[in-house]
Amino acid sequence: MTAARGTADEGLGAQVRAARTAKGVSLRGLARALEVSPATLSQIENGRTGLSVSRLSRIAEVLGLTVPQILDTVVAPGAPPSPVRSHAAADPSDGRTARPTIADWRTYDPLDFDPVLRAALDEFLAIGYHGATVRGIAARAGLSVSGLYHHYTSKQQMLVTILDLTMAELLLRARAARAEGRNPVQRFSLLVEHLALYHTHRRELGFVGAAEMRALDADNRRKIACLRITQQRMVDHEVEDAVSQGWFRADHPHEAARAVVTMCTALPTWWRPDGPLSPEQVAEQYVGFALDLMRHRRPS
User: Fold this and answer.
1) Rounded CA gap, 7 and 168, in Å?
2) pTM higher than 0.85 for the full model?
């Protein structure tokens, strides 16, 4: 484990521990709900085991929180580590999902959904949410309809789970990217780079997220919309600071910040992996576009 990755895992693990403690949930109780051993959860909370996006999303769900609420949890100085009852390694099942920790924000492993969720994503991409059927998704997953219902209760649950995991990963990477910046211009540029990389590497998720928001029921739509606002406000905050410090001179910085995020989230509509530009080249271009839009200048 690299030093950066170890520090990132420790910080996120401490936030999980603080959120759990604030909710009055025991280590053993949360482990039981997650279907992992207490030793595995202890290793996560102490930064000894990487935390997958899907598992973080599940922890948030069990605690009645959102992923951003866990990421915003303040860890008290000198907080004790989680008790370790055993030196055994984490459960083998702990490695069943991708582990893009917050230290790896520029690196994208292949999307790691369970077979049903992968089948649902493929079906939504092929014929849209309203055209998709549970029977068709089950067939793609190689399951019977009754077998699929063992994993997900409805097509709506599959869609909201896909979008939940999308936003959880997006926000984890956004916070990691922003943390590397030393001033608002650097943080703004890193956030734009992150958004461009995400919406090219994860273009399938970005496309479904843009196309199927209206298919969500009212409560789920509000939930996902709040997570999107969280991402937008991260960009807004850096723009406001850059304007106040004289780095950005756009006439309408608030509207320009929205335009920057929108141009990044629109990438899945045209970018293709077999096209002339790699995700990294697109990201570099988009950072330049964004700085031009903000009328970036050094303060006098």
Assistant:
1) 20
2) no
User: 148-199: per-residue pLDDT in tens?
Assistant: 999 899 999 999 999 999 998 999 899 999 999 999 999 999 999 999 999 9
pLDDT digits (tens, 9 = 90+) for 202-227: 999 999 999 999 999 999 999 899 99
Reduced 3-state DSSP string for 141-204: HCCCHHHHHCCCCCHHHHHHHHHHHHHHHHHHHHHHHHHCCCCHHHHHHHHHHHHHHHHHHCHH
Residue for token pair 């309203």 = 130
pLDDT in tens, 72-81: 776 665 555 5
Reading the block at residue 58, the tokens are 């599940």
Reduce the secondary structure of the chain to three states and give it as a string. Answer: CCHHHHHHHHHHHHHHHHHHHHCCCCHHHHHHHHCCCHHHHHHHHCCCCCCCHHHHHHHHHHHCCCHHHHHCCCCCCCCCCCCCCCCCCCCHHHHCCCCCCCCCCCCCCCCCCCHHHHHHHHHHHHHCCCCCCHHHHHHHHCCCHHHHHCCCCCHHHHHHHHHHHHHHHHHHHHHHHHHCCCCHHHHHHHHHHHHHHHHHHCHHHHHHHHHCHHHCCHHHHHHHHHHHHHHHHHHHHHHHHHHHCCCECCCCHHHHHHHHHHHHHCHHHCCCCCCCCCHHHHHHHHHHHHHHHCCECCCC
The separation between CA 59 and the C-alpha centre of its own chain, rounded to angstroms, equals 14
CA distance 98 to 121: 17
Cα separation of 106 and 175, whole Å? Answer: 12
